[in-house]
Amino acid sequence: MVEAMPLETLIELVNGWGTDPRREDGRSDQPYPSAAEIEERFGVRVGDRVLAGIADRLHPVFTTSGSTERARLVTGLLSETGVRPELHADGDLLHAGWLVQEERDTVLAAAAVALRDYLAQHDSRRLGACADRRCADVYVDTSPGGRRRFCSVTCQNRTRVAAFRNRRSAAG
Asked: Which of 90, 105, 143, 164 can bridge 81 by disulfide, Cβ–Cβ 3.0-4.6 Å?
């Protein structure tokens, strides 16, 4: 059985193992984060290369700007993993869940289900990639106004300082 991946874990997966986020901020030569937490949570053995591949498959969902394209990408991931709904009994209680045929698809399916659930309930513009040109990290905008553009305050400040310096040097 597959459970939807918590959004925080999904963001950590994409930012920690994704090729673009690691390259843009100079982490390409650094070791990957530990896969143990994800392996333990989903009960499946995965390696760094598999997680990097999954992260790279998920990254475009955050970087595309259109709702139609986001829906197409997530639907494609759901279809590819063959995830399907199921109902299982726990005594007299019934619980909804998801199944995948292949154990190797568990992590990607859990991420796809999380994205499906989120996008079905929220504005798709709440998913995004950092606006800092030296960063490709992704985020879920939970701010009240829905105007987030950066993955972190660090990237936001770095961009603002660079803009200030550019204006200052242009002014003479």
From this structure: 105
